């Protein structure tokens, strides 16, 4: 058989071609894996070498150390991708930060992408963007809506927390979904009604127990006495039977307030009473990085110790990452909207076929 030139061979595949921008440790890639959508991550881009090391070890050598502010439209075009996923830096928009929005240099990479996107000759058919809750009120978000609307994307957005997927974790995030072509009844509320619980206060949320390690040695995870006495009142304490834990941030294990919950390992009934009587007897420990990875939807095959990435680094990288299960459901709706997130043959075809 006559050998096809390289480009034609690429276009014979039925896989959705994906450009994973701000790829970190590959949360978007794992989310795609759990959709059953045939896909190929053509390139993953991140400026953090440690994140790239973890990504490349687990997901094949896709992650490249590139500064997004330096990538131009023709380079973006060259990837010929159907789907772009992006989780831009959230620090310019976080409620506990200064909320400097477009004035914060960390917003510049995304603003740059918004300038380059309209210049791309074959723009992606699908785009998924993730950021912190509150991003929707920023000037950056306004600019994002304008650019996507100007390019005739059908754009929907909303906030979701893993608890709406029965996962015992509060990590409310803003999601924006853009797709080419008009669709009747494609809206965020409909997606929530189809694949998420409308409220996260209801019943049916799993307990933390099923995410906990049982074989690990927890010695180095117990909270030291000094911290317990100085900052104990600021801790969010949960039990294995709890149906919630706070969002784990990049500062987990170092900062006390607002960086994530700690786990009671004693079996005292009332945390508050026992805390006042003898707080050390609660035997509080940090969640391990593996437990946090599980809560965030990463499979146990996801590795970092094997490549000598420390637990502290992993807390940081996981704190920056996404909830794989939530994003996976959203990706299904983005790629197969007319069947409520179920696979549909006609949509699998890449846009440039
Ligand atoms: C919110 S995290 C995204 C995490 C990712 N989705 C994951 O699952 O780990 C933002 C990522 O953007 C990267 N980043 C920030 N500025 C960048 C830039 N100018 N160019 C490339 N990557 C950048 C950071 O290193 C970080 O990994």
Automatic annotation (TrEMBL):
GO molecular function, one term: tRNA (cytidine-5-)-methyltransferase activity
Positions of the catalytic residues: 90
Enzyme class: transferase
A single GO cellular-component term on record: nucleus
InterPro entries: C5-MTase, C5_MeTfrase, C5_meth_CS, SAM-dependent_MTases_sf
GO biological process: one example: tRNA C5-cytosine methylation
EC number: 2.1.1.204
Similarity remark: Belongs to the class I-like SAM-binding methyltransferase superfamily. C5-methyltransferase family.
Statement: the UniProt record of this protein carries the keyword Transferase: yes
Protein name in UniProt: tRNA (cytosine(38)-C(5))-methyltransferase
Keywords: Methyltransferase, S-adenosyl-L-methionine, Transferase
Gene3D superfamilies per record: DNA Methylase, subunit A, domain 2 (3.90.120.10), Vaccinia Virus protein VP39 (3.40.50.150)
Organism of derivation: Schizosaccharomyces cryophilus (strain OY26 / ATCC MYA-4695 / CBS 11777 / NBRC 106824 / NRRL Y48691) (Fission yeast)
